[in-house]
Design goal:
Elements: H1 7-15, H2 27-44, E1 51-55, H3 61-66, E2 72-77, H4 80-84, E3 93-95, E4 108-114, H5 123-133, E5 134-143, H6 148-156, H7 168-177, E6 181-188, H8 198-204, E7 217-223
Parallel strand pairs: 1-2, 1-4, 2-3, 4-5
Antiparallel strand pairs: 5-7, 6-7
Length: about 220
């Protein structure tokens, strides 16, 4: 008898053979990551995490930029295809399921993810794992379904439909319900790393990064 696959199983099968549309060194990807990391650095308000872990690190475009504002950085992902495309040192990468991270409690000062939670069936369980291995703070970056372009993308692409849950309020609630303190969330960004044409990015990078409620992404931070 054929059984229907769960949301997580479908996501696992898709990312087992797919990677990002653009590589980590594409100029649009670089511009996207640079903007985001500059904003995250402002959130840290002078703090430089000695050790950081990126959950769902993929092909490494986040790690490439984040290593400029943290000390030692480690990444994990459940997709071997993604990890093989990641240019970071192999010793800094681990194949791991986000629901059961192979790290001890309080192993990293900062634990963060970029566009991971909308690809899992139970985002709260993943945030709880992130909190467990974080000694100081947890940061998540997710698409914002209140942005019309992002909502359309979620509706049209089956593998991205999990983003349709992610409002700023939902993103904030995940961190609050995981028991994190002093949670803040901001809606930011006006272009995507994988789809936006270079000529548009050249204009968009001149616009403000924060867009209350309708930015393309939500960035939330909370403390353990």
């Amino acid at each position: 008898m054929c059984t229907q696959k769960t949301f997580d199983e479908k996501q696992h099968d898709y990312w087992a053979i797919h990677t990002n549309v653009r590589s980590y060194d594409h100029p649009v990807v670089h511009a996207f990551a640079k903007q985001r990391v500059q904003f995250i650095q402002q959130l840290f308000n002078g703090w430089r995490p000695p050790a950081a872990l990126e959950i769902g690190c993929g092909d490494g475009f986040g790690m490439q930029r984040m290593q400029s504002i943290v000390g030692a950085i480690h990444g994990c992902d459940n997709s071997l295809a993604m990890l093989e495309a990641n240019p970071m040192d192999r010793h800094c990468l681990t194949k791991a399921n986000a629901y059961a991270l192979p790290f001890d409690d309080d192993s990293f000062d900062l634990v963060y993810c970029w566009e991971l939670l909308h690809h899992v069936g139970s985002p709260l369980d993943v945030v709880l794992e992130m909190k467990r291995v974080a000694s100081h703070c947890v940061l998540v970056c997710e698409p914002n379904c209140l942005n019309p372009a992002m909502a359309t993308f979620g509706l049209l692409k089956r593998e991205e439909r999990g983003l349709l849950r992610f409002t700023p309020q939902y993103t904030r609630a995940l961190l609050v319900n995981a028991g994190l303190r002093e949670v803040r969330v901001a809606s930011v960004g006006c272009f995507t790393p994988n789809r936006t044409p270079q000529w548009l990015v050249n204009m968009f990078i001149r616009l403000p990064f924060r867009w209350p409620l309708v930015g393309m992404y939500n960035i939330a931070i909370g403390y353990t």
